[in-house]
Automatic annotation (TrEMBL):
It comes from Vanrija humicola (Yeast). Its main location: membrane. This is Major facilitator superfamily (MFS) profile domain-containing protein. Residues 58-68 have a biased composition (Basic and acidic residues). Residues 21-39 have a biased composition (Low complexity). Belongs to the major facilitator superfamily. DHA1 family. Polyamines/proton antiporter (TC 2.A.1.2.16) subfamily. The chain crosses the membrane at residues 105-131, 143-162, 174-193, 199-221, 233-255, 261-281, 354-373, 393-414, 434-455, 461-481, 493-517, 529-552. It is found in: Cell membrane. Residues 1-75 are annotated as: Disordered. Keywords: Cell membrane, Membrane, Transmembrane, Transmembrane helix, Transport. One of its GO terms (cellular component) is plasma membrane. InterPro entries: MFS (IPR011701), MFS_dom (IPR020846), MFS_trans_sf (IPR036259). GO terms for molecular function: transmembrane transporter activity. It holds the Pfam family MFS_1.
Amino acid sequence: MTSAAIDVEKGQATTTNNEQSTIDSASQTASTAAVTAASEKLGRHDDDDAAPSSDGGNDEHDHEHDLRQTVTTRTTRSVAEALRALENFDTAPENARNWSNRTKWATVTTVALTAFVSTCGSTMAVPGIPYAMRDFGTTNEKVGILIAGCYVLGMGTGPFLFAPMSELYGRQPAYMLSQTLFVIFCMAASLAPNMPGLIILRFLCGCFGSVGPTLGVATCADMFIPQERGRPVSLYAIGPMMGPPLGSMFGYWIVFGGWRWLHWAITILGGVNWILLNFFARETFAPAIQKKFTYRVRNPPPADAGPLRRWLNDFKWMGAMVSADQAKTAFSSAFSRPPRLLFMNPVASISSVYYAYIFSILYLFVVALNKLFGRAPYNDPKLFSYLWPQATVGLSYTGMALGFFAAAMTAALYQDKIYKYMSKRNGDNGRPEYRLLLTQVGITLMPIGLFIFGWTAHAEVHWIAPMIGQVILSYGTMLAFNTLQAFLVDAFFPYSAAAVAGAVFVRSALACIISVFAPQMFSVMGWGWGGTFLGLVAATGIPLPTIMFKYGQRLRERFKFKG
């Protein structure tokens, strides 16, 4: 092995150890206290069992006493040994980074599906908007678009609750609570009696469905070291990014059964996902794993406890996550973390703003594509349309899906290779800025795709031409989105959930605004000049990855975030 390769391996180990030490510091004190308590408990049991019996001559009682003493000693000894094993959490099998690849990838797949269901629900309702407006007697198109826009706004609000919750109590409770409420409110939306009720329920659906798109990258970071993180983050991102185009595609077929069936379909998908989360999603956040394991060992359920009582016992550990005297400080710190990162850290702020613009372009095209390819009630009489029938207009999202999938594969194949190559070339331990090399490629392609899409959407041009522009745009969008996410995770680990929560808020708020007002922009400016305007705005971000690559580390060191 060459000296350079040895240096790289040492650097990788240093990076991993630095991250792990940050995690361990959050719960090492608790683990030590638990070991001490267990040892004292063992001593008390030994003293009690050594006390003489009042029926010393009774052989049967002596036998029972000896048996109880043996069982008690073995139990308390196993408790102490188990708790002491947690002191070496780096090598413990409970550590998510030490799980088998099969377990890790099952978890990645499950959280990706959770993100897919959430973002799929944001656009699946779009084909039903004209029919819901008709049934509720609404003629204002902006009010109808709020059915989709308020869902997206809710997706930006929910992370401010669930990201801090995941850093206090672990990822799994956040997933399960949010998905339970998501299914309940999606069911309620399918029964909405009027337009205001539908819009409010859609906002709540987005709020409680926001956990998948927010915590997924944090879950990946919990399980994989930086040198191996690019691939799982890239493949996970297929879920939240493929949700919008596929949701729209399926929605145009499901709406034949009525617009309420769109919401029932989301409810069914959410219910299936809830079951999969119960079976395949495990806790990945290291401090939560340590606390949970400590509680289970020290407070096992009775031997005769039924399945329900054992299941409920597993949730009692959450009360030990935050002590009563530290509760106020812990909660205020956790729940203020996303806004502090977003508004007081320039690295997070700059990344979040462009991350938001990338995502809002996606939602703009989800709302606008049916105007280009569809016919009444979807098309705009002021704009050119290819007038596809409703049964096929959903296929207009195929180009977007192909671009997303190709970009995800590109990022999965090359992101980690580039990271390791740059680490070796610069002789360092790896930097989050190495993720931005692929971001540069994606951001450069975005305006090209927008220009092609806008100026080929004409009667004289075959529909495949704007579809090609759509593929280039979605490829660049996904590549930039994917690698910016990975950059945020690396730059702010172990507070990656809080960093992503701030970015998700900005992107969702901007996507809501653009999805409501941008379709009118195309009506006024036309496809050509509308696409040109968006392309010019996108082009202003082309220098951003280069600037962040050059100055990002200095900014991170100057504005170092301490939680």
